[in-house]
Amino acid sequence: MNKRRIYAVLIALVLTIAATAMWSASTIQREGDPDAIVLEDSGSEAGVDQPKKKGNKVVKVLAAPFKMIGRLFGGDDTNKIHRMTEKDAERFASVGVTKIEDANNKSVKRDTSSASAKEHLEAGRAYLLEENYNEAITELSMAASIDPKLTEAHNLLGVAYDKKGFADRARESFEKAVKMEEDADTLNNLGFSLYQNGNYRAAVDRLKRAAKLAPQDERILNNLGLAYCRLGKIDEAYKAFSRATGPLTGNLNTAKMLERFGREDDAIRYYEAARQIDPMNSMALRRLADLYQRVGRATDSDAARAALALAQNNGSNNTGK
User: Fold this and answer.
1) N or C: which end of the chain has fewer CB within 10 A?
2) Residues 11, 89 contacting (CB under 8 angstroms)
3) How far is CA 142 from the centre of its chain?
4) Cα–Cα distance between 244 and 211 in angstroms, integer?
5) How do the domains of the chain map onto residue ranges?
6) CB-CB contact of 257 with 35 (8 Å)
7) pLDDT in tens, 122-173
8) Burial status of residue 1 (CB atoms within 10 A of its CB: 0-12, 13-18, 19 or more)
9) What are the tens digits of pLDDT across the range 7-51?
10) Dihedral angle over CA of 89, 123, 182, 51, nearest 10
11) Are 36 and 46 in contact (CB under 8 A)?
12) Architecture of domain 246-321
């Protein structure tokens, strides 16, 4: 087989993999709380308050096959983040002098051997921004060990543990932070951690306290709405969602959660309330068409589909925000 044919085959292979990645990028199981993801998909903020991630998920997915080809021809993935085990976490939890070095991780490491607590804190924050959670846990644990009263170190350590999937350790860190200082961010993070662990009443308590400190914070209010939903207090959930993003998106987010719970008639009620606010709202019309069909109201379903077609012809792309 000549070189030209080999190159053609390789290019076709790469393009096929890339196309498959693009098609599946939105269907890959996503990390994080499923309820929070539902809200995030509509542009609402929810979940733990943390440093913003860098990069674009779809770009990363599309880059994967090219990186793979590069490695096949001798390249190296110098930014690979290696998974931390529970054993590693136990070692991190008791740090003061303990630090695990990973010879396979070739990312640049900061020299913090003689650093102060605040310097370890800033190094940990930087690692969080780089999504290097192992190193973040090391630095933040050392910051908390040197200065146990450094609230932000415990809070960010909880964020790092949360990203690594260690829910219990995350909650413990958030609890330590809240005991020292009840600010809105730490109360939100603890409240959402309790919510993820199924302790909805305690979550509501912490999130309500956070909302008093930051009454306009969208993330806190949406988390509070999620916790109320899980307690079955739908009216209270709507009030929280509405305070977070306004009545239109508040109705849409409430309807989405009710639909997740299988409460189709109640979901229809809130989608119709959104439709009253914005008669051409594509999301409300699309969901109403499906839900009416599902509950056997064919005439209403047809009417919603006709309204949706009209909205789309008029170029309406409004999804609630």
Assistant:
1) N
2) no
3) 26
4) 10
5) 246-321
6) yes
7) 998 999 888 888 888 999 999 888 898 888 889 998 899 988 888 888 889 8
8) exposed
9) 555 665 555 444 444 434 443 455 667 888 888 777 788 877 766
10) -90
11) yes
12) Alpha Horseshoe (1.25)
